[in-house]
# Entry
Amino acid sequence: MNYKSYSDLSCDIRKHLPNIQDKGFDLVVGLPRSGLTPANMIALYMNVACTDFDSFINDRKLKKGKTRKSKTDIEYPHDAKNILLVDDSIRSGSSLQSDLLLIPDSLRSKVTTCAIYSSSPKRDDVDMFLEVVPMPRVFEWNLFHHVITTEACFDIDGVLCVDPTKEQNDDGEKYIDFILNAEPLFIPTNKVYALVTSRLEKYRKETEIWLNKHNIEYEHLIMLDLPNKEERQKLGVHGSHKAKYYKSTNARLFIESEYKQSVEILNITNKPVFCVDENLMLTPGKSYFIKNKVKSTFLKKLVKLIPTPVKKKIKSILNKK
# Structure
């Protein structure tokens, strides 16, 4: 599963910026909706005018900021001499061709089409593309609304809603209140294949109430059948519980909040996992480290190398502050 984040988008545009600059565009037009962000990035880097596709077609007056003067001095889109039409990605090319039919013949020769990401390295349905990202692929800006969610498993806490605080996670009345009133985070548009959570089975009713309240559709709700929080912590089966279900299905992606559990799920299933906390797609065949554990172990070893008198001196200095 290939993935590009907003950070990747910015870096990829910057990498190819010299080639774009050389073409002397005086207007950048973004195709709705996913093309608007890269269009604005390119226009800001180049300091030229930018507009959306509908405003371009209807020749609406360009809006200008007050803090910085644009290099191009045009008032209306149709005054532009060299136009860059931008979308975030291209696969079949049918959507772009439909948009091109709406452009007046008098302007078509001024337009250069550009997709930031192409599914194929060779194509003749777009004038230029910056990077090849083969299928299957998802982007940060469409992940939770992509059709892939119909074939995905979702964690709940840290994905669909915020995580409970330590105080809220009391396995009692405060936790029930949290479940019923948790603030939503990433709400998927499509019906999700399965919600796989480490929440205890005894909280199914409250969880279903919250999901219904936020119009989250799903085929399966898989919870942890243990008596209490203490038993769950003792067994430490958060990641393995999720991995066991994911591995038993034809689901193509697991969306997990915590990095450590993401790595565990990947290692057990050998299937892609998206980690929300790290904004990272973990894929089979690559090695991932448990960062916090590695860092903690390294620091402990480092501290052991410090002579005891020096440790005491440092401790006394810190205590005085």
The two ends are 51 Å apart (CA to CA).
